[in-house]
Write a structure and sequence with these properties.
By secondary structure, the chain is α/β, with parallel strands linked by helices. Helix content is 38%, strand content 17%. A hairpin with a 2-residue loop joins strand 10 and strand 11.
């Protein structure tokens, strides 16, 4: 295609929570544009839409390939991020900034809320008569974008969780007690379920109990579950999603917080506190004390560590994040569509293979994909068949050996 057919400049933004591979996607967009002969400037939005309205851009047009490669391998959002949700007035400021820079291509890398932001910008541009092609690139460690088999960022975060549990299992085995680890996942339990990946067959490896948002959580049942495992094994390692909720759908973390903080998209902030882990640990201590027993109970909240840990990056996750960015650039320049989202869809398990398909943003925006109930065992565990889904995305884990 002739570069003469491409008019104006392009902006790339990174939105929402950073991940270990979100820079791969940004670099993928740059490479995709270059390969198709895009003649305009390629600008990075410094802190996403919040930077756009301030005309705060980083010129990526002539960035050397070796710099791009290093950026791609660097965790977190190299361009900076934002959780702002634009309304009509906000969009007018965006289009004003775009017009000043002659921007007619917009790439937004992010998860559920970011896809909704991209949808809003695309629809507002059409309504205002501003010529803009707006394309969403998938990203989220929660793995909860619908229409996607999985999302960039999840594989690396899942690898971190799996490896952390490998180590914590050995710690718990050496000094037996009850250990609770609270994992990210507001509405979806994929990341918490990843805790089982390093669990070896024929051993007493933990996690011994896994609680995800797709199953109602009851505190009394939780105490009984832990008591049974502790009586059987003399220890208990537990994975708990930050988004577990009671039968009425109220998140446990919300019930513990006197003043609940929410972001611009209305999401309750769950990862900035260790209150849930502390609460569950205290409840277990009281439970065993009431029975005249003293139990060693500890809790950790993995929090933001899961998102950008450089030592646990999945190679497949890196490759797919970059390819998703390239696919978005190709869709913007060759599909003839004014907007869209890239969906990663699995086409084969053996050998593992995926496709990068262009969908309407409305099919994905602000919707949530949940962990399939077939993987949840008795409200408190994850079936080993989940490993078949997860293993190709995460990659081979370190091999562990125990004696005695």
């Amino acid at each position: 295609m002739s570069s003469a057919q491409f008019e104006g400049n392009a902006v790339i933004g990174q939105s929402g929570g950073p991940t270990a591979v979100i820079n791969q996607s940004a670099v993928g967009v740059v490479e995709g544009l270059r390969e198709l002969g895009f003649p305009g400037k390629i600008l990075g939005a410094h802190h996403a839409v919040a930077g756009i309205v301030k005309s705060d851009f980083i010129d990526l047009t002539d960035t050397p390939q070796d710099v791009l490669d290093r950026l791609a391998d660097t965790p977190s959002s190299g361009l900076g991020s934002s959780r702002d949700k634009p309304d009509a007035d906000y969009c007018k400021k965006i289009f004003k900034a775009f017009a000043e820079q002659d921007v007619h291509y917009f790439f937004y890398i992010g998860g559920n809320d970011s896809s909704d932001t991209c949808r809003i910008v695309a629809e507002m541009a059409a309504a205002d008569g501003y010529d803009l092609k707006a394309f969403h690139v998938p990203k989220t460690v929660d793995n909860d974008l619908v229409k996607n088999d999985h999302t960039p960022g999840f594989g690396s975060a899942a690898r971190f969780v799996a490896m952390a549990f490998q180590g914590d299992n050995l710690d718990n085995r050496a000094l037996p007690g009850i250990k609770i680890n609270v994992i990210m996942g507001r509405h979806a339990g994929f990341l918490t379920a990843a805790s089982i990946l390093g669990r070896r067959a024929g051993t007493d490896d933990g996690p011994h109990l896994v609680y995800v948002p797709e199953a109602d959580f009851d505190l009394d049942t939780f105490k009984q579950d832990v008591e049974a495992i502790y009586a059987e094994k003399g220890r208990c390692l537990i994975a708990v999603s930050e988004g577990i909720h009671d039968k009425d759908g109220t998140p446990m973390a919300v019930k513990l917080a006197p003043a609940v903080e929410k972001d611009a998209h209305g999401n309750v902030q769950l990862s900035g506190t260790g209150a849930l882990g502390d609460y569950l640990a205290a409840a277990l201590k009281e439970h065993f004390a009431a029975k005249g027993e003293k139990a060693r109970v500890r809790a950790d909240t993995f929090g933001y560590l899961q998102r950008c840990f450089p030592g646990a990056v999945s190679i497949v996750d890196q490759q797919e994040a970059r390819n998703a960015g390239r696919a978005a650039a190709k869709a913007a320049l060759t599909s003839g569509k004014p907007s869209g989202t890239i969906a990663i869809q699995r086409v084969s398990d053996s050998p593992y293979a995926v496709e990068y398909n262009l969908l309407d943003i409305a099919e994905v925006a602000a919707k949530t994909q949940h962990l399939d109930p077939k993987y949840i065992v008795n409200h408190r565990d994850i079936d080993d068949s989940f490993k078949d889904y997860l293993s190709p995305i995460v990659g081979e884990l370190p091999t562990m050996e125990t004696i005695g």
